[in-house]
Design goal:
The structure is a homodimer of 354-residue chains.
Chain A lengths: L15 H8 L3 H8 L7 H14 L5 H8 L4 E6 L5 H16 L3 E6 L5 H14 L3 E5 L15 E4 L10 E4 L3 H14 L6 E4 L5 H17 L7 E2 L4 H11 L7 E4 L2 H13 L9 E3 L16 E3 L2 H17 L14 E3 L20
Parallel strand pairs in A: 1-2, 1-3, 3-4, 4-5, 6-7, 6-8, 8-9
Antiparallel strand pairs in A: 10-11
Helix pairs in contact in A: 1-2, 1-3, 2-3, 5-11, 7-8, 9-10
Chain A binds a DNA duplex (16 and 16 nucleotides) through helix 2 and helix 4.
Chain lengths: 354, 354
Amino acid sequence: MAAVVGRSEGSSVPRSADVARLAGVSRKTVSRVLNNEPYVSAEARTKVLAAAEELGYRLNQAARTLASGRTGSIGVVALGTVGYGTASLLVHIERAVRDAGYALRVVNTPDGDPAGIAGAVESLLEQGVDGFIVSEPIVEGDVSVRVDVPVLFLGAPPAFTATRTVTVGVGAHELARAATEHLLDLGHETVHHLAGPRRWYATKDRIEGWRAALAARGAHEPPLLNGDWSAASGYAAGRALAPDRSVTAIFAAGDEMAIGLIHALREAGRRVPEDISVVGFDGNPVFAYVSPPLTTVRQPFEAAAREGIRLLVHAIEKPDTDLPQASDAPVELVVRGSTAPPPSHPDTADTRTA
Amino acid sequence: MAAVVGRSEGSSVPRSADVARLAGVSRKTVSRVLNNEPYVSAEARTKVLAAAEELGYRLNQAARTLASGRTGSIGVVALGTVGYGTASLLVHIERAVRDAGYALRVVNTPDGDPAGIAGAVESLLEQGVDGFIVSEPIVEGDVSVRVDVPVLFLGAPPAFTATRTVTVGVGAHELARAATEHLLDLGHETVHHLAGPRRWYATKDRIEGWRAALAARGAHEPPLLNGDWSAASGYAAGRALAPDRSVTAIFAAGDEMAIGLIHALREAGRRVPEDISVVGFDGNPVFAYVSPPLTTVRQPFEAAAREGIRLLVHAIEKPDTDLPQASDAPVELVVRGSTAPPPSHPDTADTRTA
DNA sequence: TTGAAAGCGCTAACAA
DNA sequence: TTGTTAGCGCTTTCAA
């Protein structure tokens, strides 16, 4: 058998050894260049890069991970619901993760129960991630997993303990409060609340903000309604609420529920915003184009994702230093056409909060 | 230094060797059990599983990948837009991938140009995937990457060559055709089309379906309008179209554009559906709760994702056998309140296609 | 500034 | 049915 000199036999995929050979350096030098390590001469760097390019060399991440312990990946466990909010958050997370130089692994856990979350985390850890994000989990019991990487809880408090825990909220409490106050400012005596499903953390958060606003003004707290985020559930709530003439203002925990709510109200002969005002929650821009255009509160998905990933990456890369300060996103109330003064104060025409 | 017997020193993470030792078998047997390979006695299997459980053993995927060549991951390159359609598709992809026993890696390429797609694919390949999905790419020039794993093109034709290529459509052509025919069936002389951005494949597909329907009925083809999928762009198109009294039916390539369109039309004093009928595209359920409820065509996201992943996994796991037959999802027209006979035929009250 | 050797934790091929 | 041996392709010592 003839010796094959100069390169691996066949046309197999190039390895770092092939690059080293072509560049006339050692494999370690190739590794140094590819990892941007110091102590490499400019000349060596140039040669290595040229050789890698010529060969079409592609680094083998699995090998790197095995040798170094770092995976270059960040995972996200989400609920897998299809809504403007969750979709928007995921897109911004992907973007921030990519910008930080990491790859993204996604696992959904539709039920969001502790066992589901634990399983999702387990699979992420097995696949290999340097850290991960738990996005808007459902709170209900303890999640027990052994976690030895930093974890970012986005939009919710820690659901389990980990090496290093970062929490970034989306300001739901303040947003809910602002939405409620907007209605109160318009002159409504009190504000009803159509909340999300009981098990969700996001639901509790908004309820608390709503309560706080009511309490601060000494307004009485009407009974709560729960939907499931869908327009259909908002519609059902609207049918229940419509006959009650004392209802003049409703804060829905999601834009889609608000849309369903308005639809039911109008079908029942109640005008929006003349008889009843409705404000949503999320900020999906499409609802500026329905009748009436929906007044809502905008969730700072992009800011929260960026900020959260920044902190997570810091925790991964500089485990010994303190976490930088998390900055809060500003509260953004979007006043459109679904809110107005109550029928009893027909002339309080222009009170709005920004 | 005293010899440490029976287990690795310290409380470090357990390895397969630790499991083997505790179970009293060889590492290879542990490997067999964990991979569900044949030729393992029930007794050995039980012991290994118990040992793994006791130790809290977590398989190291990087090591497995390096040794076996299989990654257990599937990648998806998407556009990273926030819409009901893309979000819905991604959720169903994640679900199907997980059900097939794979992990999911996500890379977005917001621009969708060949260089962006190539970069996204490159990063996926480097991270390690056994196959990947290119979802609704933008067509415009050639993507040049060396791809040696199967690729699934979802909702679009192959944009580059790979070892094994699978294409699964969402039936956009038929759906667009059905939407247009529904309008024609109602008695409209012709149907205008508000298309998506020119560069998108999805745009072309829908245009062709619309054209086909028009041609089949001998209807004349009005000039095309292009939006960017947003409600705002639909609104702009609506303002442009409203003054033209000959327009009585419009097919919008997306639900959100349809919503914006309707808003502009009404603002301009044209009634929907009495004066102008509008049909959307996607099937977002929330638009059943706006006024008028939107007639639309439902994209079979779940079916397409399931079917596509099934074929992709087949191509990955059984590279030598033929691909099973791809089955088409049924066309689903959702007739709601935004379509009606044209003003000139006030009594053709009930013609609908299913 | 560079290189040689020794693994990272697993599976493949083979032998028993 | 089981175990042994030899890597997978990279990074990490450590020495030069």
